[in-house]
Design a protein that fits this description.
heterodimer; A: mainly alpha; 4 strands; B: mainly alpha; two-stranded antiparallel ribbon; globular
């Protein structure tokens, strides 16, 4: 019942913060968010899951309660964690707390509503990573949209209403497409399943229980479902060409929300790809490995090129997220231990790094009131600590050794290169590696123009050091990035335990 | 089994209570010495007691499995009580209770309140009876019993031009569709020699008089389509819902629609089972086409509205399209219990969330806020609790998991996919995504926009508020508690097939 306790504490906290006075809401929300944070660390210490939650048995902290009975199908409250979901849960709790603290400075109206929605968002995210029943998972998956919509639309930038509704409708359409694909699989399984539990469905699919549906044979049904789910999740990731909502949402969202959007919400997409497409339908993934790899490489290169063309620091980080998510897809399709493991590790690592990048940009914006590369230069003299962290985060993004980005990307490349599943794996890997060069290019360029050189600021603001409350979360996140870079085994061991059963399915090694 | 053996006619208790309440209301009004001096509190209290009494009986019977193992037949097979009767009775009584509560404030300054309430209860009696009809004669009678008071109720605000116009339009089109329905019944009688549903099904002979039977079935479908505001019989709905007093709009678009659908479910599964009539007229194709047109047209029209109430009226047409999936997806390969049960569940959830949304509009009218989206700008600052409730209704209508509308909609779409009609679910998905856009416009106006006017809100009407909050709480609680109702609804559907 530990996971439930976490969820309930966050939900209750959201309720309390919603009615708290605006003045104290931020501090109160931070204090409340420590409960799930410490709780998730306890989960980590008590974690005993040794297998994949969908393929093995007995995930950690499992609870199953009957919920709804629907003409032969049981929907259940079924939650549990394995080595893939636990790191993401920890990522969520750490990022939420730091995002709340980083919001103290920029959010200056309707605070209690803001922090209540952030906590609601956290509850949704924890539910997504914990749920092991399809409908339960889908409830959390969709509930995340609601606080996100308000957070962008109320506290965002000038075009916030447009960005919010675009995000809302775009991702909702994606969910509907994915739903139709998945539910077709469920009905295709016929009487071989009695619940909509993800483990049961996965295992029935592996056992070859799939019969046809509506004139489609099992093969065609799998293919159609794979496409529908892939398209649905690709919007969330987002993958080129489904990425157009992301820059708008990121640029308009207030910085603490961008942190959660890039840090955790995008991981929902890759997490779902791993759980659904690559675990449930490995044969389809394998048969279309080249096409998926092309998607991955195009995302890596095109996302990076888009980032290169931007002047807005937030847009640069937003587009480079698209690029980083491309690596995750490449690692997944490799179906090797380091490929899938590295992809999962990259989800966590990128969560911390991109969160850190957005937060740093936010701290700079709080002082300068601009994010445009051409509008400022030489910030290093005035804001040494913030700039130092910015540089460190950027190098983390470029993959400097001893930072988590390095570990993640090295693992992915090591895993993708020898892949037997993906024909021409070395070529795809080499192409994707080229993305790093572009990343280094635009980040170095942006840093050189904004941080160094003689001081100049287009906007007329007094530029001083950032307050401690702004810098503290940066330090925490940087510490996480370095810790994971120095000791990837903090998570990588449990990730390996969880992904190894998937490899057997994909026929990789 | 209950300890006390009730007589079989007691199975009709919900409808009887509603009819008795209507008469008591008349009586109370007529013993007052001066006309129109009856205390509104008394009228509302009696009405609420009647509605809750009917609700209590429905829920009790559902829990006690009255008529759910074998339908209770009454009056020589003219009426029956089974699970579906009780599900409809629950929907009608719940919506009625909310509407009565809200009407206390809404019509506080209007004359003829006793008449208003008794007409409301007569209409509700007809709607409840529509769930227990077992023959075309009783079906027609119950339909008229629910329709005639509704016409008068729509035109209740007789100094308001919109209300009168809406009432007239509703009446003219309603009368026409009743005629079509009656004519269809006569053709069916001509082709089969029976009016009782089971007897019709037994007498259907595709080789004898197929044309007459086919035309009869289409005409009956048209009559039902009018009641449920399905395209192309929907013209009256936006006008009637917009012009009517808002609690009546809520009542018609929730309860009346549910009654029409339950009647359709019963007629087309019992009297015209698809196996028997498929060679005469394949109503699956008919309803698939109507569902697509209704979903698309309802939602697209809703997206272009400027008035919130009219938007809700069109969205109500769109939701009729979703529910129609329940009939359209009864293919031979479908999990029929699930398909039909999903339709009933959506009607039940819709009863709460749609009523709540209309009542919020009623609240805004009470405050003279205005009709358009812009008029609602910044209203959340003045009325945060009601705005939270409205947000729940709208997002639940859009199929987001803040309320049970999420589950009922996705179960419905899922059932359609399971029936092999993935394209129907895809059309529903497109319509549903579009609906998110226009529902979000209201939410945006409430919470995100700055007020465009100075609100003059000095009173917070108790009845309206209570009704809205109850509807919101039920909408939310039905999400975790969906299992409590889903089993009954699916069992009720299963009993029919």
């Amino acid at each position: 019942m530990l996971l439930e306790a976490l969820l309930v504490s966050v939900l209750l906290g959201a309720g309390i913060v919603a009615v708290a006075p605006n003045r104290y809401a931020g501090k109160l929300a931070a204090a409340i968010s420590l409960v799930p944070l410490l709780g998730s660390f306890y989960l980590w210490s008590a974690f005993d899951g040794a297998s994949n939650a969908l393929l093995g048995t007995n995930p950690a902290f499992e609870t199953t309660i009957e919920w709804i009975s629907l003409a032969g199908y049981q929907l259940q409250w079924h939650v549990g964690l394995d080595g893939v979901s636990l790191p993401l849960v920890i990522l969520t709790t750490i990022l939420t707390t730091t995002a709340i603290v980083s919001a103290w400075t920029p959010i200056d109206e309707r605070q209690s509503q803001f922090y209540a929605l952030v906590l609601l968002l956290e509850a949704g995210l924890l539910g997504v990573f914990g749920a092991l029943d399809f409908f339960l998972w889908f409830v959390f998956w969709e509930v995340v949209l609601v606080p996100m919509y308000f957070l962008i639309a109320i506290w965002g930038g000038p075009r916030r209403k447009y960005a919010a509704i675009k995000f809302f409708v775009y991702t909702n359409v994606a969910s509907l497409v994915m739903f139709i694909g998945f539910i077709a699989l469920v009905f295709g399984l016929g009487d071989s399943i009695t619940t909509l539990g993800l483990p049961e469905i996965t295992q029935a699919l592996q056992a070859g229980e799939l019969t046809g549906l509506a004139g489609l044979g099992p093969g065609a049904l799998k293919g159609a479902a794979f496409i529908a789910m892939f398209a649905g999740f690709a919007v969330k990731v987002p993958m080129v060409p489904f990425h157009t909502w992301l820059p708008d949402a990121h640029v308009e969202a207030p910085t603490p929300v961008s942190v959660l959007l890039a840090g955790v919400l995008l991981k929902m997409g890759t997490y779902a790809l791993l759980r659904f497409n690559f675990t449930m339908l490995p044969d389809v993934a394998k048969a279309n490995a080249e096409i998926i790899a092309i998607f991955a490489v195009v995302s890596v290169i095109y996302g990076a090129l888009l980032a290169l063309a931007q002047r807005d620091l937030k847009r640069i980080v937003a587009y480079s997220s698209i690029s980083s998510m491309g690596y995750v897809l490449l690692g997944l399709i490799a179906y090797t231990a380091h490929g899938v493991g590295g992809a999962t590790f990259q989800m966590v690592s990128h969560g911390f790094i991109s969160g850190l990048m957005f937060m740093t940009v936010g701290v700079i914006y709080n002082q300068t009131h601009t994010r445009m590369v051409g509008d400022m230069s030489g910030l290093a003299d005035r804001m040494p600590v913030t700039v130092g962290i910015f540089v460190a985060a950027a190098f983390g993004y470029m993959g400097l050794p001893l930072m988590s980005g390095f570990a993640a990307e090295v693992l992915i490349f090591l895993g993708a290169f020898p892949s037997t599943v993906l024909p021409g794996a070395p070529i795809f890997t080499a192409l994707a590696m080229f993305g790093i060069v572009i990343v280094a290019g635009y980040l170095l360029l942006a840093m050189q123009r904004t941080l160094f050189g003689p001081f100049d600021l287009e906007t007329d603001y007094e530029l001083g050091r950032a307050p401690v409350q702004d810098v503290a979360p940066l330090v925490v996140l940087l510490a996480c990035v370095i810790a994971l870079g120095v000791a990837p085994d903090l998570f990588y061991g449990m990730i390996q335990d969880a992904v190894s059963p998937i490899l057997a399915l994909g026929g990789g090694a | 089994m209950a300890a006390i053996e009730l007589p079989t006619w007691a199975a009709l208790a919900p409808a009887l209570i509603l009819a008795a309440t209507a008469l008591v209301l008349f009586l109370i009004d007529s013993i007052e010495s001066e006309p129109d001096t009856t205390s509104p509190v008394l009228l509302t209290a009696v009405g609420l007691a009647g509605a809750l009494g009917a609700l209590a009986f429905n829920v009790w019977y559902l829990i006690a499995d009255t008529g759910q193992n074998a339908p209770i037949e009454l009056f020589g097979g003219q009426l029956m009580v089974d699970g579906m009767t009780l599900v409809l009775g629950t929907i009608v009584a719940s919506v009625l209770a909310l509407v009565v509560l809200a009407s206390y404030d809404y019509i506080a300054d209007d004359p003829y309140q006793a008449e208003y309430f008794s007409l409301l209860f007569l209409a509700a009696t007809g709607m409840t009876l529509l769930g227990s009809v077992d023959s075309f004669v009783t079906a027609f009678l119950a339909l008229e019993l629910s329709s005639l008071p509704s016409y008068a109720l729509v035109a209740y605000l007789k100094d308001n031009q919109g209300s009168v116009e809406a009432g007239l339009k509703y009446f003219l089109i309603g009368a026409l569709s009743s005629a079509i329905f009656a004519y269809g019944i006569s053709l069916i009688y001509g082709a089969t020699g029976s009016l009782q549903f089971d007897a019709v099904a037994a007498a259907v002979d595709p080789t004898a008089l197929p044309g007459i039977l086919g035309v009869g079935i289409v005409m009956v479908a048209g009559g039902v389509a009018f009641k449920t505001a399905i395209v192309p019989f929907h013209f009256w709905a936006p006008e009637a819902y917009e012009g009517a007093p808002t609690p009546i709009s809520a009542f018609l678009s929730s309860a009346s629609k549910a009654a029409g659908f339950i009647l359709a479910f019963r007629i087309f599964t019992t009297a015209f089972p698809i196996e028997a009539v498929a060679t005469t007229i394949d109503w699956l194709v008919l309803f698939q086409a109507l569902a697509v047109v209704t979903m698309v047209l309802g939602n697209f029209a809703a997206a272009t509205q400027e008035s919130v109430k009219r938007m809700l009226a069109y969205s109500s047409i769109g939701h009729a399209g979703y529910v129609l999936i329940a009939l359209a997806a009864l293919t031979p390969t479908a999990n029929a219990d699930l398909v039909l049960g999903a339709g009933m569940l959506h009607l039940l959830v819709y009863g709460f969330m749609n009523t709540g949304a209309f009542l919020f509009v009623g609240l805004a009218e009470y405050w003279d806020v205005g009709r358009t989206f812009e008029d609602y700008n910044g209203l959340a600052q003045e009325a945060p609790i009601a705005s939270v409730a409205m947000t729940i209704f709208l997002f639940s209508l859009a199929g987001l998991p803040v309320g049970a509308g999420f589950l009922s909609k996705y179960v419905l779409f899922g059932a359609a996919v399971g029936a092999g009609l993935w394209w129907l679910a895809a059309v529903g998905a497109i319509a549903s995504a579009l609906s998110l856009f226009y529902y979000a416009r209201v939410v945006k106006a409430l919470w995100i926009e700055e007020p465009s006017q100075d609100f003059e809100i000095d009173t917070y009407p108790v009845g309206l508020y209570a009704a809205i909050i109850v509807a919101a709480v039920v909408t939310v609680l039905l999400l975790p508690g969906f299992g409590l109702v889903s089993e009954d609804a699916i069992a009720a559907a299963g009993a029919l097939l």
